[in-house]
TrEMBL record:
Record Gene3D superfamilies: Cysteine proteinases (3.90.70.10)
Organism: Fulmarus glacialis (Northern fulmar)
PANTHER family: 40S RIBOSOMAL PROTEIN S3A
Principal place of residence: cytoplasm
A GO CC term assigned to this protein in UniProt: spindle
Entry-linked PROSITE patterns: USP_1
Spans through the membrane: none
Protein known as: Ubiquitin carboxyl-terminal hydrolase CYLD
Length: 221
């Protein structure tokens, strides 16, 4: 455990601490969905550090301390988190979420985020989604569903995020890529985009013409 607070890793420090063998979050018993989500949310960014410290209205302090002291701080300090620490969190999620499969089954990252952010910590939704004048929907991440494209073999995040979807700038933007299961993988890998241009995705913002690439003056209904 690392009870002291450590800032997210940046630049050369991130390379020094996170690169090499026995680095990252150790997997065990179908924990990959949670390991990948926790690493993405906390290793190199502080945008969700309020989850670690802020006393939200519905906040479970035990879960918050496990997340902070047994997972995030060790990850930022040494670049490594033991599987037993993640299992401790999974056991608490099982108890709070009343779902026994959190300790042994492959789950959807969105289910994990909804449970820990909404039911356990009581965080306000990060995104407001709206499509075609329909009612806004609150959520914590945007899960991408897409049909198989034969000409798209190894995409980057930019290529799989081109759908108009939200109506205001969120405090942070969590994207769940097309998931990998035991039986089927849509892509062998997806390359992380270091920058993500979401101009075309914003409501009432100028969009590129799909033919010439210039700013569009008209938009088909």
């Amino acid at each position: 455990q690392a009870p002291d607070s450590f800032p997210p890793l940046r630049n050369e420090a991130a390379v020094r601490v996170l690169r090499g063998r026995m680095k990252g979050i150790q997997g065990h018993c179908n924990s990959c969905y949670m390991d990948a989500a926790l690493f993405s949310l906390f290793s190199c960014t502080s945008v969700l550090d309020s989850m670690l410290f802020k006393p939200f209205l519905l906040c479970d302090r035990n879960v918050q301390s496990i997340l902070r002291d047994e997972i995030v701080n060790p990850l930022r300090k040494t670049g490594f988190v033991r599987a037993s620490s993640v299992m401790h969190l999974r056991e608490q999620l099982t108890e709070k979420g009343q779902c026994s499969s959190f300790t042994n089954a492959e789950k959807d990252p969105e289910e994990f985020l909804n449970l820990i952010m909404h039911q356990i910590l009581g965080i306000e939704p990060l995104l407001k989604l709206q499509s075609g004048g329909q009612k806004e929907q609150d959520c914590y991440c945007y899960q991408i569903f897409m049909d198989k494209q034969e000409d798209l073999v190894v995409p980057d995040v930019q290529q799989v995020t081109r759908l108009p979807f939200f109506s205001q700038i969120p405090s942070c933007f969590i994207i769940q890529m097309p998931r990998f299961g035991k039986e089927y993988k849509m892509f062998s890998k997806i390359i992380p985009s270091l920058e993500l241009d979401i101009t075309d995705l914003l409501l009432d913002s100028p969009r590129e013409c799909c033919v010439c690439g210039d700013i569009a003056t008209l938009e088909c209904s």
